[in-house]
Write a sequence for this structure.
């Protein structure tokens, strides 16, 4: 299940009464269950309504409605805690960018009475509560998801979390071992140390019940997936996979693969292009270990969209 800001194509609940369209959210509808939320409507604000903003009041972050002079901070925190604590199963969040409520990190914070550009940027109050209550779930806004690399990372994380939740629901160490095995290269692309650390957690159980082992694993997996992989760590995972195939490839194919890696490293090629070539060789050569690696199939292929905002890997 993915929690999504209701204004992103589900309801005309934006402060100005508009409904916004997100191509990405529309594409995702066929592959996930959505739960819509508008926290501002959730605390009783109408549509349309006077805008709210975040204000730094002597170091305390407050959410105010300047036109009415209402302080909505407590109401929003209470709503976020009540709503988020009620979610038994959630795999990710897609939130409205720049919203004082939902923006994951690009919300302007003002000094009291200020009308200018703002002091700094932070996450909205609801988005802050999301991180507290659901640290494993990936969180993005619809604006950043127009970036190809960010979108790929979000989708890979989203469906990885969903698969982990399914394994956890089955509740056996054998399921955790299977999950760890299938995701080894994907985790290696995040950080070479991550699959090693998670592998030790899986192997060294110290007699702990399976539920406790899964909890420890989740506490390490969430932070490990949060930061988008660097080109260098991704290249390391791709080279690791290539090592299983290189002896069966021609000299020209090996040279071509190395050229692709350099194109990717130089941000002239998306990682999906390199993965596609490797996947074709895996199918041709019938390499069982690589056939089961989620690095090559992290999310439904129907969601692979090469359109890009052109803002680079770290937009």
């Amino acid at each position: 299940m993915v929690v999504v800001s209701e204004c992103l194509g589900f309801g005309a609940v934006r402060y100005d009464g508009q409904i916004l369209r997100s191509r990405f959210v529309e594409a995702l509808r066929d592959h996930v269950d959505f739960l819509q939320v508008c926290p501002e409507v959730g605390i009783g604000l109408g549509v349309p309504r006077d805008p709210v903003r975040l204000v730094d009041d002597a170091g305390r972050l407050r959410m105010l409605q300047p036109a009415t002079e209402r302080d909505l901070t407590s109401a929003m925190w209470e709503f976020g805690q009540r709503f988020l604590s009620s979610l038994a199963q959630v795999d990710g969040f897609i939130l409205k960018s720049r919203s004082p409520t939902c923006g994951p990190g690009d919300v302007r914070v003002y000094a009291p009475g200020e009308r200018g550009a703002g002091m700094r940027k932070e996450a909205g109050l609801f988005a802050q509560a999301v991180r507290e209550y659901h640290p494993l779930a990936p969180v993005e806004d619809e604006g950043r998801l127009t970036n190809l690399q960010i979108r790929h990372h979000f989708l890979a994380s989203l469906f990885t979390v969903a698969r982990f939740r399914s394994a956890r629901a089955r509740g056996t160490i054998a399921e955790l071992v299977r999950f760890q095995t299938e995701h080894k290269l994907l985790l290696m692309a995040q950080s070479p140390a991550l699959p090693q650390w998670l592998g030790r957690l899986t192997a060294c159980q110290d007699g702990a019940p399976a539920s406790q082992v899964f909890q420890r694993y989740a506490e390490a997996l969430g932070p490990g997936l949060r930061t988008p992989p660097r080109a260098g760590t991704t290249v390391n995972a791709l080279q690791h996979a290539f090592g299983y195939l290189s002896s069966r490839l021609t000299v020209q194919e090996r040279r071509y693969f190395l050229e692709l890696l350099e194109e990717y490293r130089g941000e002239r090629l998306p990682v999906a292009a390199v993965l596609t070539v490797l996947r074709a060789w895996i199918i041709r050569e019938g390499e069982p270990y690589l056939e089961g690696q989620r690095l090559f199939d992290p999310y439904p292929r129907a969601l692979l969209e090469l359109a890009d905002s052109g803002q680079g890997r770290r937009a």
The beta strands are 2-5, 34-37, 53-57, 60-65, 70-71, 92-95, 107-110, 120-122, 139-141. The longest helix spans residues 148-170. The chain is about 45% helix and 10% strand.
